[in-house]
Amino acid sequence: MNKIIEKHKLYKGCVCESRGASGGIATLWLQDNWNKIAETVEQHWIKITLKDNMSSFQIIIYNVYVPNH
Fold first, then answer.
1. Which of 14, 27, 58, 69: CA 20 to 30 A from 7?
2. Are 17 and 30 in contact, with CB atoms under 8 Å apart?
3. Hey, where are the domains in the chain?
């Protein structure tokens, strides 16, 4: 996943790689529009705080992966 992010220079990202058979997760954003303030990466979720470069508006995004048993 990190290779994909590096290939596309317009984007920045935060990645939780897959572990065994469980899938990984990623959160991507346009680097020209958003600036990363903070991130937390755990096995099944990513929390990221982004700030808009034009207005200083901040958002918090949770990206959650839960296996469906």
1. 58
2. no
3. 2-64
